[in-house]
TrEMBL record:
Domain Bacteriophage T5 Orf172 DNA-binding: 13-93
TM regions (residue ranges): 115-138
Protein's UniProt name: GIY-YIG nuclease family protein
Source organism of this protein record: Paracraurococcus lichenis
UniProt entry keywords in alphabetical sequence: Membrane, Transmembrane, Transmembrane helix
InterPro entries: Phage_T5_Orf172_DNA-bd
Domain of life: Bacteria
């Protein structure tokens, strides 16, 4: 899999001293939101740092090999390192593969393109309006 994407570092206040390192082809804030939705997570994940890379799977694999001795559990992507240490490992693993560096925005300010920028209330209101117009048009037939 030679796809561009992001390698990210997430933190969680309920897990002090640990970071989660992973990859996604979508925006890291969306991935953090997905992970935070699980019922076993007491507080939401926060995006501490991320980089856009040309080959995200290869960079993530190299980071996990380099930081393997700091793994909290051999079957999980959690490491007992600081955010700067994880960032350094990602930059080393990416070597010449780093795309433009991206500074994360606060999670509350991130919006996807399209309908998500309006919020679900606006989308629901527009859907209700379209339904009402369609029903009114059917009555005229």
């Amino acid at each position: 899999m030679n796809r561009a994407g992001y390698v990210y570092v997430l933190t969680n206040p309920a897990m002090p001293g640990m970071v989660k390192v992973g990859m996604t082809e979508r925006h890291p804030h969306l991935r953090a939101k997905e992970l935070s939705a699980h019922t076993g997570v007491p507080s939401p994940f926060q995006v501490a740092w991320f980089a856009e890379v040309e080959v995200c799977a290869a960079v993530e694999a190299a980071v996990k090999v380099a930081m393997d001795r700091y793994r909290v559990n051999g079957r999980r992507e959690f490491f007992s390192v600081t955010v700067p240490e994880a960032r350094e490992a990602i930059e080393r693993a990416a070597a010449g593969r780093l795309g433009r560096r991206v500074v994360p925005r606060p999670a509350g300010r991130f919006r996807r393109r399209g309908y998500a920028r309006w919020g679900m209330g606006v989308v629901a209101a527009r859907a209700a309006l379209l339904l009402a117009l369609a029903l009114a048009a059917l009555r005229w037939l």
